[in-house]
């Protein structure tokens, strides 16, 4: 048995907030409707569930406003094969995502206008 099997719901919540958890690739993720009262793998009460629903934001973190709040508009662009390859190389060289490189380039371009 691990220490995690003996932690209180409050300790578990604090660990999750810190990001101190791993999900096995073999994990079976269930929707909230599939959990049953008394399930030993799910010990949160109604108040805990209400707080999790309040804090939960679907999708990726927002790029606008405070963390977890606001909307981040999404744009799509078509690129030539050459431009896409250059973007991929630049992102890899900088250890950044292609989206981060594109956002930075667009911000720099718009600030220069």
Automatic annotation (TrEMBL):
Source organism superkingdom: Bacteria
Residue spans of biased composition, Basic and acidic residues class: 7-21
BP GO annotations: regulation of DNA-templated transcription
Annotated region (Disordered), positions in chain: 1-22, 51-76
Ribbon-helix-helix protein CopG domain ranges (all copies): 76-110
A Pfam family hit: RHH_1
Name this protein carries in UniProt: Ribbon-helix-helix protein CopG domain-containing protein
Highest classification ranks of the organism: Bacteria, Bacillati, Actinomycetota, Actinomycetes, Micrococcales
């Amino acid at each position: 048995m691990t220490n995690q099997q003996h932690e209180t719901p409050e300790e578990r919540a604090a660990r999750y907030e810190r990001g101190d958890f791993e999900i096995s690739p073999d994990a079976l993720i269930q929707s909230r409707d599939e959990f049953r009262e008394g399930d030993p793998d799910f010990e949160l009460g109604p108040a805990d569930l209400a707080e999790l629903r309040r804090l939960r934001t679907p999708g990726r973190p927002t790029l606008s406003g405070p963390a977890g709040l606001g909307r981040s508009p999404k744009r799509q662009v078509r690129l030539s094969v050459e431009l896409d390859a250059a973007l991929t190389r630049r992102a890899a060289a900088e250890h950044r995502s292609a989206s981060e490189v594109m956002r930075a380039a667009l911000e720099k371009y718009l600030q220069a206008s």
